[in-house]
Amino acid sequence: MHHSGRVTSELQKTVGRRLRERRRELGLSQEAMAEQLGYHRTFLGSVERGERNLTLASVEQLATSLGVPALDLLRD
Amino acid sequence: MHHSGRVTSELQKTVGRRLRERRRELGLSQEAMAEQLGYHRTFLGSVERGERNLTLASVEQLATSLGVPALDLLRD
Fold it and tell me: CDD domains under this entry (chains A, B) (predicted)?
């Protein structure tokens, strides 16, 4: 059975969950966080929903902007 | 100072080190491992050297083909 839809990796979902948790810890809306970190709101929203197949470098950059180690975003 | 060279993320280097360690544990050459996993030898070599800015999904796929959890490749 050929899988035609986009396969969302577990890692993508984990990064999304951890980003959302971190944002909530900071008490920020997606918009406020995006502004603070210099990202676009819709981009952060799609990362949170696990829709973005980020590269290792962009995960690391996101973590750096959040002031957390990259591994913090990669494990529950 | 504008950094013109490609920035290699720490995560890329970690994945490279862990892949190489795993390959050595299995006692395989890059060529043999590439063949077994269905990757191109030069691709695996570049991943091992930390030259590839892999996506989360491709790290997960690589881990699955190695029979290890993705996190195993993401932390030392």
Answer: HTH_XRE
